[in-house]
């Protein structure tokens, strides 16, 4: 099979497959680097980014480069713009997150809404008599101007709406429908306990916890693609080798069948034209002939 692999046609195909494999390797390295950088950024506990106005503008996406960093914001809370996010598990407890809109003055003088996860409480602390979370039991936000510091997180994916002050995700597309706009695309998770709430844990966003696995999955896919190109070349060489081997076997069998077919013909010709020598003569016939000749004379 090595002779087949060294033919110019297959060597050219190998060169093409090697180039494709190298491209897949570069793409896999790029995805791995993205995943590694994202994990480093998420593990940076005290990575301060500065004021929210200097980091991101309302409506802009929260990218990997700023996600998880500590930002500051100054503004005032609106107690009428507050939702509860139940169904979380934090520090081994069933938790409910309290999210309130912070009105922030932007550089152009307008006011934008910044969703702030002010903290969380045990689910039982805000559960009403009907067994459902009651927004009225949540700690009210402080009044007046406040300074907020916390981790900047990307919006979670929206799967359900907001009903009676209860949301299933911290999703800014849903909050815009409830509170209006302009609004920041991400939210801030307060990293210290305040206002009767417990501090938000790092990387509470489902987006941030899932992005690393997504990049790692992409890297693995590119590695598999690269291996597939090399396997495709090997399979092509092997198929050509087996085809040629089968062709040679078929030619050999044809020659053997032809050779075996000539023997009966030769034998048949010998039967039609027998060779009679002295050893093959019948002495009886010769004697009788001699006697007849003698009697005739």
From TrEMBL:
Organism (species): Brachybacterium endophyticum
CDD domains in the cross-refs: SURF1 (cd06662)
Membrane topology term: Multi-pass membrane protein
Any one Pfam family match given in the protein's UniProt record, by short name: SURF1
Superkingdom to which the source organism belongs: Bacteria
TM spans (from-to): 216-234
Main location: membrane
Keyword terms: Cell membrane, Membrane, Transmembrane, Transmembrane helix
Name this protein carries in UniProt: SURF1-like protein
GO cellular component, one term: plasma membrane
PANTHER family with a match to the protein in the record: SURFEIT LOCUS PROTEIN (PTHR23427), SURFEIT LOCUS PROTEIN 1 (PTHR23427:SF2)
UniProt-listed InterPro entries: Surf1/Shy1 (IPR002994), Surf1/Surf4 (IPR045214)
């Amino acid at each position: 099979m090595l002779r087949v692999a060294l033919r110019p046609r297959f060597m050219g195909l190998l060169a093409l497959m090697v180039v494709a494999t190298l491209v897949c390797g570069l793409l896999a390295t790029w995805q791995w680097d993205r995943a590694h950088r994202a994990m480093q950024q998420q593990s940076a506990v005290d990575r301060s980014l500065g004021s929210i106005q200097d980091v991101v503008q309302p409506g802009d996406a929260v990218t990997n480069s700023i996600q998880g960093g500590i930002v500051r914001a100054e503004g005032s809370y609106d107690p009428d713009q507050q939702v509860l996010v139940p169904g979380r598990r934090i520090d081994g407890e069933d938790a409910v997150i309290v999210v309130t809109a912070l009105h922030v003055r932007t550089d152009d003088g307008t006011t934008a809404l910044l969703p702030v996860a002010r903290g969380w409480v045990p689910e039982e602390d805000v559960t009403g008599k009907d067994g459902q979370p009651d927004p009225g039991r949540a700690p009210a936000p402080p009044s007046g101007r406040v300074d907020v510091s916390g981790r900047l997180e990307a919006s979670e994916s929206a799967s359900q709406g907001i009903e009676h002050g209860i949301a299933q995700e911290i999703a800014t597309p849903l909050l815009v429908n409830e509170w209006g706009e302009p609004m920041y695309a991400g939210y801030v998770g307060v990293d210290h306990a305040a206002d009767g709430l417990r501090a938000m844990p790092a990387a509470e966003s489902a987006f941030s916890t899932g992005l690393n696995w997504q990049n790692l999955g992409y890297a693995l896919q590119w590695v598999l693609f690269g291996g597939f190109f090399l396997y495709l070349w090997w399979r092509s060489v092997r198929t050509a080798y087996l085809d040629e081997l089968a062709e040679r076997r078929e030619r050999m069998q044809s020659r053997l069948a032809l050779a075996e077919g000539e023997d009966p013909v030769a034998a048949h010709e010998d039967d039609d034209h027998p060779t009679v020598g002295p050893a093959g003569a019948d002495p009886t016939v010769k004697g009788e002939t001699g006697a007849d000749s003698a009697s005739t004379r």
